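User: quick one, sequence for these tokens?
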């Protein structure tokens, strides 16, 4: 008989349904073993990462015994690495994490060691350290607390209900001190992720049929949850090769290698836009000097814009005010054996263009870029200034279609405002953040991480068909 005011004991059987909400595990069968001192959780692909003063560990778990097709990725702070002797007398070192255990309507923090329990019927073992003084275990009973079920792993809610987890993210960039790269590191770490900047040119590849691998400074790179490419124009081809290796390993990349290659090749980019019926200024290209006059006629009357195919940030772009000037510029480029195209000049744009930043198929931010006095190029690197702008519905639609044409998760779409509607000038697969964040007041890096977190969450498992169904 309890004394007045004495708390009723919390009853458990020798087996119970439990949840670990902080790890995204809503239902596990656990064995309650008062003979064991520590608690253990099934885990495989266990990998430490993060700074030495705040180490983390990530791992995967098959929550349903016998169902290796259902995998939940998890991560947590590693609070210790402990020597543990199993029931059969074997000793091993295990990572220790702290997480919240839920049984019935009660939750409390517990320490759990990580070990592969794939051959065992119970994915979790609850030892006596995890049991409070008011917990009473009735070894003759099973499932004293409410029953759960594995069906939850097949629900659509599983994807949206997954808790935030620490991600390991690589930023491919040769400019670690650049504003955009620094913002990616700062914002990622503020959200609890581990962000590593890798110099694109210092990555190298081991290409074999067994398993794709990327190496760096003499070591094989670990498995990343996501890769954000900030690949410079001068190393586009090599950077795309590195990305293909990550893609082959199943890593989520914000921008795919083929999309980057297509957007960087100005001729191919215009062909892709044309194939997807995205409006753009009239553009023409020819190889033979005999076709110079016809080339100019295709585009229209002067003034005309002549662009090197490998131009970037406004460099290699010339405005020819007259037909004769256009012929001279074309002859000069041909003399240099440089590839170029000729494009309609949209006079009514007045030295302005609009950049729409597209992230994950949505407009994240926008700005208007205004050219410096006496300059027709509005690029910020050419002295242009950035101002806030509100996009029209048509401009939003064109920008989204342009990014989608290259399958880019992050794109800066440059638009000209012409008399007959918006025209796409360029699709940038590595847009800078500084100008658009300053002009729009939007936290672009945060929006990008929200998209990455959404994309790398585990999808709900599909129900396995019964034999003969």
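Assistant:
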């Amino acid at each position: 008989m309890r004394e007045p005011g004495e708390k009723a004991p919390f009853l458990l059987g020798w087996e119970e349904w439990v949840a670990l909400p902080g790890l995204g595990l809503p239902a596990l069968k656990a064995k309650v073993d008062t003979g064991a001192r520590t608690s253990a959780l099934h885990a495989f692909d266990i990998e430490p990462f993060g700074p030495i003063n705040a180490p983390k560990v990530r791992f995967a778990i098959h929550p349903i015994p016998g169902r290796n097709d259902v995998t939940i990725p998890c991560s947590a702070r590693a609070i210790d690495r402990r020597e543990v002797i199993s029931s059969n007398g074997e000793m091993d070192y295990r990572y220790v994490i702290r997480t919240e255990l839920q049984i019935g309507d009660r939750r409390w923090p517990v320490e759990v060691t990580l070990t592969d329990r794939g051959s065992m019927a119970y994915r979790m073992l609850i030892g006596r350290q995890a049991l409070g003084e008011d917990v009473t275990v009735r070894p003759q009973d099973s499932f004293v607390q409410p029953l759960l079920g594995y069906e939850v792993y097949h629900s659509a809610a599983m994807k949206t209900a997954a808790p935030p987890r620490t991600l390991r993210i690589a930023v491919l960039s040769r400019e670690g001190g650049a504003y955009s790269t620094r913002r990616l590191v700062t914002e990622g770490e503020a959200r609890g992720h581990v962000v590593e900047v890798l110099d694109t040119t210092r990555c190298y590849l081991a290409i074999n049929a067994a398993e794709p691998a990327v190496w760096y400074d003499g070591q094989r790179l670990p498995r990343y949850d996501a890769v954000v490419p900030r690949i410079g124009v001068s190393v586009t081809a090599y950077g795309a090769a590195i990305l293909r290796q990550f893609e082959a390993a199943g890593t989520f990349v914000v921008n795919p290698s083929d999309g980057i290659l297509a957007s960087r090749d100005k001729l191919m980019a215009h062909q892709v836009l044309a194939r997807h019926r995205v409006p753009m200024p009239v553009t023409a290209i020819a190889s033979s000097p005999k076709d110079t006059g016809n080339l100019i006629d295709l585009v229209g009357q002067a003034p005309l814009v002549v662009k090197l195919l490998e131009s970037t940030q406004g460099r290699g772009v010339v405005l020819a005010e007259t037909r004769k000037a256009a012929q001279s510029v074309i002859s000069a480029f041909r003399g240099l054996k440089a590839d170029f195209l000729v494009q309609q000049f949209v006079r009514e744009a007045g030295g302005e263009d609009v950049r729409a930043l597209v992230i994950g198929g949505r407009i994240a931010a926008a700005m208007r870029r205004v050219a410096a006095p006496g300059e027709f190029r509005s690029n910020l690197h050419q002295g242009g200034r950035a101002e806030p702008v509100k996009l029209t519905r048509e401009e939003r639609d064109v920008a989204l279609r342009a990014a989608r044409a290259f399958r880019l998760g992050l794109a800066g779409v440059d638009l000209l405002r012409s008399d007959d509607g918006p025209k796409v000038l360029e699709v940038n697969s590595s847009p800078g953040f500084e100008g658009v964040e300053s002009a729009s007041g939007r936290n672009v890096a945060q929006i990008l991480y929200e998209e990455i977190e959404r994309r790398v969450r585990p999808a709900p498992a599909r129900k396995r068909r019964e034999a003969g169904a």
